[in-house]
Amino acid sequence: MSDLQTPSAVGRWRPSRRRLLQATPVAAAGLALTACRSKPAASGGSAQSNPARASTTPRRGGTLTIGTNFRLGFDPHVMPTTEVSIEGMFYSTIIRADPKTNELEPDLAAKWEAPSQTEVVFTLAPSIKWHDKPPANGRAFKVDDIIYSLQRVQSSDPRFINKSYISGIDKMEAVDDHTLKLTLKQPDVTQLSNLSVPPLKILAPEVVDKAGKFATADTAVGTGAFVLQRSDLDVSSSLTRNPAYFKPDLPHLDRIEARAFKDYGSEWAAFLAGQIDHRWVPGQDSKQFADTQKSKYALDWFPDQGYQIMQAMVQRKPFDDARVSRSLRLITDHDEWNSFLEEWFGRGRYSSIFAAATAEAWDLSEDEYRKYLEWKQPKDDAIKEALSLLSAAGYTKDKPLKFTISGTSAIDYQRAMVQLLQAQFKRNGQGVIDCDIKLYDTAEWNTVRANSTFEYFVAGHNPGGVDPDAYFTSTFKTGGGRNYGKMSDPVLDKMFEQQRTIFDEKQRKQAVRDIIIYMIDHCPYGGVDARYVLNADRLNVRGFPAEGAGNQFGEHYENVWLQS
Length: 564
Known about the structure:
Blueprint: H1 7-10, H2 17-21, E1 32-33, E2 63-67, H3 81-84, E3 95-97, E4 104-106, E5 109-113, E6 119-124, H4 143-153, E7 169-176, E8 179-184, H5 191-194, H6 205-211, E9 226-232, E10 236-241, E11 255-259, H7 264-272, E12 278-281, H8 283-292, E13 297-303, E14 307-312, H9 322-331, H10 334-344, E15 346-349, H11 356-362, H12 366-369, H13 380-392, E16 401-408, H14 412-429, E17 433-440, H15 442-450, E18 456-461, H16 468-476, H17 490-499, H18 505-522, E19 526-538, E20 541-542, E21 561-562
Parallel strand pairs: 2-11, 16-17, 16-18
Antiparallel strand pairs: 1-5, 3-4, 5-6, 6-8, 7-8, 9-10, 10-11, 12-19, 13-19, 14-18, 14-19, 15-19, 20-21
Helix pairs in contact: 9-13, 17-18
């Protein structure tokens, strides 16, 4: 194996989670599923082949310093995946997924089995306790805590944007304090995978009752490997080892220090100066860095689980006219977006729905995309068709289409995304499109999306999981928690439901392919492209999970250790 996994090698990556999904409750009644725990020495992927990182037994102690910021408080049930993933350091889920292999593995549940095609029974790990912080005060964890949390996620309050992940659950029962039984509405190949998404963290009822807005570190009371001691917004946070953690011999670290940075450039400079221990390499630097620095750092390409998405608010003018949203998709220049992703992250890939972590296994190939008008180069024919649609909808140079593109100003690349989309619309719209920009800070932006008080937006997006259904049911299905633009297509909804019941992988892939092709022609919004990033760790850091840009898998920090 080479020292560095190249982007072309990443292109052959396939999520092995699908093998496990074929053995889930909806596939074979009575089949027990007991996944292996993650292996700290292997979690770094190809980076572990660096001779300077010859494997030794994990050691206890030390402080890991990372760049992150808890920007939206500590209530995972109302937060998008990109904001909540890092909170896995102190919160837990029923099960979780390895970010590199996407294999499902235990977390709160030590094992699970399937008495029938519509039942899943989880057995909790022994000796789980809440953090020794009030009001939980280290009490024993019980199944009722899981039921309380999942029912809270199902709230009709629009703030709870993650309800779609558990829409297939009909009944939740505590068999006893250590056994949870879920009854599904119908056989569903995706439900087990969806239970692993980061926002489905489990909270203690008494903590929720007292926490209010979950604005301070004392409200972050979980069962995870680390205890959040302090968190100052836009400054830093400090976490210490949980001495009562239920997984034997974990975590290895004594402390984690998290530092907030005003922009990506400052964070990258801090990594190069040795002030933080991990960072993904900026796109414009990735090729040279990979060629010249592989002996100084552990490097590993990673297909990101986050991507960029455009959404139109289709229940308001002018986007209640399908011709308008269709025209904007046609004049989007995906080759230019690929160049943008290469500059910021390292590599881009055509994709209309999926992030790179899913696209390589489930999406159309880039050659197939190039056959569709939206992706053809040059853009002349697509622009001609778009202008024809706009003319039919009543928009001309004398009466241009006017609207606002919204986004967030919190992250530098997201500001640049909004500016790029505006430039494409104005250039390719040839005077028929007149759009301006409005940017929000992080908290405002999440409120704007949750309340659908926008006309059009482009922003970072993470569906929460890598199974195609995580995208379908959360973002494009009628009523989906992250379907901010309120699109509704009964034909598409039926296709989504059907693919969830297909257990033969080849047949399900064909069903997903049919959905993608249908959405290319009929969906009012979708992804602009997918991205890959190059991870860089300092050589003394072991077991660090591969991560994307803005997607930090905090639950796997329990496996990180430092070589002296």
